[in-house]
Amino acid sequence: MPESTSPYARLQAECALHNATLVAVCKTRTTAEILKLYQQGQRIFAENRVQELVAKAPSLPADIEWHLIGHLQTNKVKTILPYVTLIHSLDRESLWTALDREAEKRREPISCLLQIKVAAEESKFGWHMQDLRDQLAGGILKRHPSVQITGVMGMATFTDDREQVRREMRELHGYFEELRAQYFSGDTGFRILSMGMSGDYDIALTEGSNMIRIGSLLFADS
Asked: How distant, in Å, are the alpha carbons of 12, 36, 128, 144 from that of 135?
């Protein structure tokens, strides 16, 4: 691929090889920077913080598909639902309940990914897998029908040890397959494995990710 090819074009080409979706993470980016990427063809953007997404979305093109990838407080659910297509960070029962309640009020289901903790860092959010298994076995899906679970999300440890990153991503992929077989068998909507960021997306793609979340690499030439 020519050296002059943009980061966006290179990443889209890599995603195409792996049948993956590219999500542009635009935290701290200006609307001008977002529009520059939009004009290259990108339509899926993500924010970590509710406040930033709500502030930017109204002044940007209406055909942008917004994702929320950061930790979501239950008191921000009502604020964010009118804007987002997908929430990547469903990580606890109380949030599941709040999302279902608000989505039911709006009479519009919300799509979410189950965030599962595979990283070694205590600071990272996500379900511990046994807790998630217990909730699913206990019927949480039936209790919250307005929340549509469309896959899983996770983050590997921030480390230079790429083999550790690979092990954690392989573990997450295994959990994805386990959940699909045991709780979402026949559900074609359960299909997203969101893992991989600017520093490790190449490993993620080889380990089965079909959605990568890229920030700094995409905006490197902004």
From this structure: 36, 43, 11, 12
